[in-house]
Amino acid sequence: MLRAAATSPKGVLTILAFLAAILCSVPSMAAAPYVLGVSDKLTVKVVQWKAAETEFTEWTALGGDYVVGADGMVNFPMVGPLPAAGETSADVSAALAAALKQTLGLPAAPIVSIEIAEYGPIYVSGDVSTPGEYPFAPGLTVVKAIALAGGERRGAEAGARPEREMLTTTGNLDVSEDEYARLLIRRARLDAEIAGNTDIEIPPELKGHAETPELVEAERAILNARTRQAEAQASSLSDEVALLKSQIEAFEQKRKNTEAQLQTAREQLDKITTLSDNGLALASRVASLQTNVADLEARLLDTETATLQAQQDIAAAERERAQLNDQRITDLNLERQTVDGQIGALELKIDTQRGLVQEAALYTGAAVPGDSAPTYSYTIIRGEDEVAADLSTAVQAGDVVVAHLQLAN
Question: Helix 212-277 to helix 283-364 angle, to the nearest 10 degrees?
Fold first, then answer.
């Protein structure tokens, strides 16, 4: 009973002012009134003015604390469930007052005030230092929610040795990336050798790279030296083949001369043999001619043998030249396969080291050089909806704020 306060006009005005203050639970300067959410705890007061008795009567049976349920409803005595989630406290107050008037058959609706005693919690998860449940407050944004959870994920020893951590990890990464660039240029040089090209095509990954010209120049020197070596070997074999062909031509001329001499010697031998049979020539003369014919036949055979040997040497030189080229291509392909394997292994190593660099940045708080710094994205799960957010996005009670760490590739 508020009889004592209502016994004078001044007291009535004081109570009315008090009730007006209660009803204005949302500040008038707020850009937008707070919208109730699931798990919000509400403090309800219901007061009826009895003009005949000039007093206010508080309905204690309806007063007390209520919680917005998971279905968004608040269950009031005598009235039953009323929608609350998505409504303002003033909306729920008006709805409850109207429902009481209708249900109880009152001539006038009672005065209902609803204050938010406790906001429903929010939940922060993902890549934050301390995921969990945190209290909501009006004006809460994603960046404030992340701050409640201790900030984005950092290591327990953050700042302990950031310089050494970053020097070690970035140093290893720099060495690996330098070796990777060298291997790419080496593979390009091997491709040029296999194709018989005289210059190296710069890999797309290294175009515009500061150290590319120096690396290309070094590999170009190797390409030129190996090309000269291969050309020298081929030229040597070509010269040998040319010499052997010249020898064969000389042997051919010698063979023709020897065959002519042999023909003449045989004709002379036939004549002297006939004369010797008739007693007109000495036997020694026949023997001398026979020796001369045998010697010419031997010389002819030697010439033919030398010609055959030269032809065999030419064939051997041609085979050696082909084998040298085939072996060179085979060796180049094997070397390229080896380089491919090294490049593949180094790519995995670089990916791992980049992850380590970014992890070092996370756990030490040190800055990441270049464009490989990790970034965060944020998502708000609101009921069944998933909403992309940024640090300035407003958070509502009951929201789940998820921080996603995105490592650079």
Answer: 170
CA distances from 113 to 35, 100, 106, 242, 287 (A): 16, 13, 18, 115, 154
Q: Report helix, strand and coil shares of the chain as percent, to nearest 5.
A: 55, 15, 30
The pLDDT value given to residue 286: 81
Is residue 193 exposed (0-12), middle (13-18) or buried (19+ Cβ within 10 Å)? buried
Dihedral Cα 389, 391, 395, 400, nearest 10 deg = 60
- How many Cβ atoms from other residues are within 10 Å of residue 217's Cβ? 11
Tokens matching residue 172: 């290893």
Q: What is the pTM of this model?
A: 0.46
Distances from the Cα of 4 to the Cαs of 14, 51, 60, in angstroms?
12, 14, 18
Residues 6+ away with beta carbon under 8 Å from 406: 374, 375, 376, 377
Q: 291-315 pLDDT, tens per residue?
A: 988 998 899 899 999 999 989 999 9
Beta-strand ranges (E) seen in 84-173 are: 111-118, 122-126, 132-134
> Nearest Cα to 39, choosing from 406, 405, 399, 409?
399
Question: Sign of torsion, CA 317 320 324 329?
Answer: positive
